[in-house]
Amino acid sequence: MPAGSDLACSALLDTWLDAAPFRAHARHLMAASGLSSAELAELTGVSLGAVRHLVYGRSGRPARRICPQTARRLFLVTALEASLVRTRLVPSGRTRALLEQLAAAGWSVPQLSAATGLRRASVEALLEGREPSCPQLVALRVAATVTAAVLPELPPSEPLFSAAA
Length: 165
What we know:
By secondary structure, the protein is mainly alpha-helical. The protein has two domains: 5-83, 434 Repressor (Amino-terminal Domain) (Orthogonal Bundle), CATH 1.10.260; 89-150. The protein contains ten helices and four strands, in the order αβαααβααβαααβα. A two-stranded antiparallel ribbon has the order 1-2. The protein has a two-stranded antiparallel ribbon with strand order 3-4. It is elongated and about 50 Å long. The two termini are 25 Å apart.
């Protein structure tokens, strides 16, 4: 999520939108595609905290309003597009760079595998540069893992990822 976007939303406080249709859309995207909230956050460019607040609420209370910028980012992604992340190939350079950052910070291949939900062989192939491309879902999972490592203060409402890709 771009820096300062929360400030931009704060400036638009009077123009916030009813969250209900956007919550329904986010839940539909997740149900139709099998994406976790972390993967959906990366795909839409919305912060993980905003997605979790919208979908799960806080302290049992659903979000009532949503920033127009967040709403737009969510509605730009269709269920078909969300479903295609499993098969759409993307260049693996950024994914490799993110894995290298975690490895440089002391993460082992088994830790990277467990955190991303990827098979160990897939992590090794990406780190060694043997894969010029990877499924978009893999790129989303790795980016979400980096986000979670950088912003660990967000309490998880769900596991970051399900089965190994």
